Amino acid sequence: MRCAVVGAGAWGTALADLLADNGHDVVIWAFEPDVAESINGAHENRRFLAGYPLHPALRATTRHADALEGAELVTYATPSHLLRSILRAGAAGVDAGAILTVASKGIEQSTSALMTSVVDEETRREHDVVALSGPSFAAEVVAGQPTAIVAASTSIEAARCAQSAFSNSTFRVYTSDDVIGVELAGALKNVMAVATGIVEGVGLGFNSRAGLITRGLHEMTRLGVSLGAQPATFAGLAGVGDLVLTCTGALSRNRALGVEIGHGATLAEALKGKETVAEGVTTAASALVLAEQQGVDMPIVEMVNRILFEGHAARSAVPELMARELRSEQDL
To answer: Has this prediction a pTM greater than 0.90?
Structure first.
């Protein structure tokens, strides 16, 4: 197929390389001219994925329309807070009948919308939309390490198309019809990774980390069910799979930011000088708004917000969570 990838960060580049390696005709749109030049000239994204050779057939452009022209499959891999504006700028160039896949993970702050909803709104619901999510560090995907993710859509045909396009001997894609669960899990796990990093940063051990991850999963599931998601989705690749990876993996930007906060850095200090986005920061605020709208109790998400945005002492967070009223583990 003719494929376009919109967004040339690490994840967008990894997906574009994967599609090219699978034999598709792929053009990736990059905002930064040096990224496009690096991909075209050196077959490497030296800014966001340095050290990993890319498929020589992969082409990059800074012209949105050129990337989208004739594309049968369009994949959006932009930071979540930029997705709407980028869609608005280029949606008119998307071919009729193209399937749109969304690899961005987040909850829009101004609307509490999930990313597929943003795509639906900006493309006037004229295309089938697929959410891609699961445990997948970009560098390991480019390196050909075995990876499994989920393609979720209300259209089983669209989900299967994405499944076929991306799957190969090292990258396995499962399908799902639970778009809300897959998307929400992918967004909220970044907040839990920030929390886990904070726990690590203040010097707590494996018991604390395991407890936080498990209760974090419970919070994620509770919010998902309130929005109509299937509980089983949170026990799958997009849920516990991505949660464990992002909370424990050394390549996790969200966990690393949490570690710095736990060591005593302010949010501004932890973000200073970083080109890559830690989605858990913006998602923490939007997740809390969504939880309040749904009347769902999310104490870990609330505590992360207090630490990030209100200057609450990281070291006192876990004792405060431990002092909450006792309850049944199964309480929803």
So the answer is: yes
